[in-house]
Amino acid sequence: MPAGRPGHPPHLQRISRDSYNGAMTQPPLAERLAAHGIQPTAQRLRIAAVLLAAPQHMSAEQLLARLEADGARVSKATVYNTLNLFASRGLIRPLSVDGTRAWFDSNVEAHYHFHDVDSGALTDVAVPDVEFSRLPPPPEGMEVAGIDLVIRLRRAPRGTGA
Amino acid sequence: MPAGRPGHPPHLQRISRDSYNGAMTQPPLAERLAAHGIQPTAQRLRIAAVLLAAPQHMSAEQLLARLEADGARVSKATVYNTLNLFASRGLIRPLSVDGTRAWFDSNVEAHYHFHDVDSGALTDVAVPDVEFSRLPPPPEGMEVAGIDLVIRLRRAPRGTGA
DNA sequence: ATGGCTGCAAATAGTTTGCAATGAG
DNA sequence: CTCATTGCAAACTATTTGCAGCCAT
Lengths: 162, 162
Hints:
The structure is a homodimer. By secondary structure, the first copy, chain A, is of the alpha+beta class.
């Protein structure tokens, strides 16, 4: 049932809570949001549909552009608010890779990143690909909340690649 | 020649290239700058004097505040320009720890960081305290330019600290 | 005189916030 | 009806840029 959107162009808003997810292995978006205590509104679902479609990294700007290209009607403020909401509820993970922009990772599982400093591209590094044989103990009264590992890459001088 | 102190005549900069460093163990600042191909101007030396005084992390804002408190006359633009210049020449290292601000680390030696997510405090983690027993090979044609490791800390529930 | 560096302020970029309007229950 | 959510624009914060003046050469 197409949640009646405000008298908006009918062809644009056709997301109902599961139409985007019917064929996927993951639980429907609405449920995933609900599981994190997030009310499934139309724009939240659209945002989730784009960002949570696959493990990926997106900036607010990218996400907004994508939404607009898809014909979704979501304001910039809502994109930011929603991303922050998702992040605060643990649905997505904010990344600090480049100081100028905020990135959000739809993959909240532990993992690390390659960062191509030339292109800015971010690539996942699976947990088993990294192994710490030693880590410092956290200071008194502190505990480790997470480990962010970013391996910066640059183009190899030449022929050094493999 | 005594370096200008707070409340100083509007026009003149009386820092000469080494007045700030005569007693330190490191090579004079002017030489350090020169070694990185940076011309030692008055404000660059003042900025370097503050930031390079010890291994530490500072934001542009902090640095500017400190300079002003010290009575140095350096504009915000110059602080940013200088930090970027220093960073591009490898004199300091930019850090991406929190997406909202750029941090600069006066310690360019390889090392890692603790980041207290509550207070925002940054603490160094020495290289020998971390050991990787496995790291992924960089993709074809790429080489590792650096590794940024940030261990996020939060206050332990209680009594879990030691 | 020349060229590099600086200060200032305006311009950008990214993100947050205030508030009225809107829609779901 | 009521409340949460949204959109818009203005407000903010962090950073960069344009340009004229100054300094050392």
